[in-house]
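In response to a reviewer's request, we include the raw inputs and outputs for one of the modeled complexes. The two entities were modeled together in a single run.
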Amino acid sequence: NAGVMQNPRHLVRRRGQEARLRCSPMKGHSHVYWYRQLPEEGLKFMVYLQKENIIDESGMPKERFSAEFPKEGPSILRIQQVVRGDSAAYFCASSPQGFTEAFFGQGTRLTVV
Amino acid sequence: EDKVVQSPLSLVVHEGDTVTLNCSYEVTNFRSLLWYKQEKKAPTFLFMLTSSGIEKKSGRLSSILDKKELFSILNITATQTGDSAIYLCAVQKDTGNQFYFGTGTSLTVIP
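The model returned the following structure tokens for the whole complex.
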């Protein structure tokens, strides 16, 4: 049973470009969470999704950021018109149901130049 | 405002030492507290605690929760260099399903 798979592992974008981060949850997991980790800071919650539904996006910036978890395929975190401040590690986690432990992927390290 | 505070921020010990990491929290509608270990990659799950006073144990690691005093500790006995990592504490609330993380304790174990 493969773990949570994130790709790419590293992503470099120029300011103004779009970044698309992918997350395939563990088999049998229908709950996906996205977190952002800045240097010297803890993991900050961004969004919680179930298949085809955004359950809680209270941690997402209001502009430029969006997330989806379609019926088929991975969850996608999309950042439009990236700025230097978006440079961070983005982690995805999944769980089989609510209120259980979540398992994390290896993260995508986004660098905006 | 919900808070999860870990202490110390960093710790350097010698192999064989025992360490205690602390996590205190102030959240409304507390449901559970989780510990993760993060090396230079994905945080890996260690423990999930929901009940006060019941110790969870895995090898040299153990953890306990005090819901009255709002804290948890993670103990590591007979530390090894492979224990060097950042240890993260997270709290899950009854409302919503996200985890609120502390900033972590960076543990370095010297041979």
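As requested, we also summarize the result in words. The interface with chain B takes residues 3-4, 31, 33, 35, 40-45, 48, 55-56, 58-59, 91, 93, 98-107 of chain A (CB under 8 Å). The first strand of chain A starts at residue 5 and ends at 7.
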